[in-house]
Amino acid sequence: MALTGIEIYKFLPKTNCKECGFPTCLAFAMKLAAKAVELSLCPYVSEESKQALEAAARPPIRLVSIGAGERRIEVGNEVVMFRHEKTFYHPPGFVLRVKDTDPADAVARLVDEVAGYSVERVGLELRLDGFAVENESKDGGSFFKCVELVSSKIDLPLILMSEDPSIMGQVLEKVASAKPLIYAATKENWDKMAELALKQRCPLAVYEPAGLGELAAVVEQVTGAGVEDVVLDPGARDFSESLSTLTQLRRLALKKSFRLLGYPIITFPGEAATSMEEEALLAGQHVAKYAGIIVLDHFSPSMCYPLLTLRLNIYTDPQKPIQMAPGIYEIGSPKKDSPLCVTTNFSLTYFSIAGELESSGFPSWLLVCDTEGLSVLTSWAAGKFDAEKIAKTVKEFNIAERISHRSVILPGKVAVLRGELEEELPDWKIMVGPPEAMDVGGFLKQHWVG
User: Alpha carbon of 336 to those of 303, 332, 405, 432: distances in Å?
Assistant: First the structure.
């Protein structure tokens, strides 16, 4: 049975040294009870306490890293079934599969295209996370050449896919330092694959489609051999089966503390799809329920952008909206007589109005108030975006020194603030803009004279 924070606290050194990253031992104990951290963060816990806290020391789903650089994929360590209960922590990695039977020039072009693909949304750069190389030819030389080609062009995490331990071993001798994911251990080859994972210190995927009991049996053999970093492939591929199986795995890990299945999951939506569109839909389901690594078989910006956006939205902490830093932002190359607009620091609000200002042909100043990441109407209703806050922000960032006029444009949805803001800024002209960001260009053409 899981221990409470107070019960865990009794086993800790109670020094409040802060070396674990938390202000007190009690705070650390509460995080342990929530299975949000590992006991290894405490440098002073005794061996006796480690044994007593074994059940509470490890999160229900182990955190596994794939890759060795800054772009490594970290998945697992989740503690809730549903995002609204708390949050999801580690977004699934999107990985594109190439095969060693594909022409080398086609592989090279695809790798370059994927590596160069990125889009910006709410100030964040969205892109794919790595590549999976499959030994479809069953030939060691072809597999090695394909892995070498891919790894020579990118510094991204790799998944090596071969059922032959001897071929896998030859390739790992060259790329083990990159800490690729070995795919996969099965009930036929688990011993040799586990030996490779231990020797090269790489994570190991376990594949068993016969059922969760059989999957757990292979995991037990692999972990019994000493492998700690495991990724699960239960073999579920279509919409219904993958939803059911992945949900069962999550429940067994979180609700039943079934350690043998408490690992991240890898999925292959392309194997059940009949088109790229169907693959995208199934991949979207895997983002929400409950994949750790999603291996795609097709690449298209029109397919990837919605998936990356979905992942961003689901793995944003619902209690901590994505925010911009308060301040004054230059949209285009504004001059002293350029318009001054004001908005909140909710990122989506900022980028909506910033994008419309940029395309309007009016270089502008955009004043961003600290509303704790809330949108215009929400922050106004919560009392975090009012005349006093706007006036304070105007003065705090000395905007009067940057512009030659004294006009500020309010969002149209909070036109009610106009009178109060005129009292707070008596020397300023308060203008009320359009309710929707998309109309700001037309508003400026009609009303702005500088």
Answer: 43, 13, 8, 20
Question: What is the value of pTM for the model shown?
Answer: 0.79
What pLDDT sits at residue 96?
98
Which pLDDT band, with edges at 50, 70 and 90, does 450 fall under? Answer: low
Helices 140-153 & 104-115 angle (0-180, nearest 10): 30
- Report pLDDT for 335: 94
Bridge-partner residues for 404, per DSSP? none
Tokens of residue 179, six digits: 């800490």
Kindly list the structural domains of the chain, giving each domain's residue range(s) and its CATH number in brackets, ordered by start. 5-57 (1.10.15.40), 64-314 (3.20.20.20), 327-447 (3.40.50.11600)
Span 140-162, average pLDDT: 96
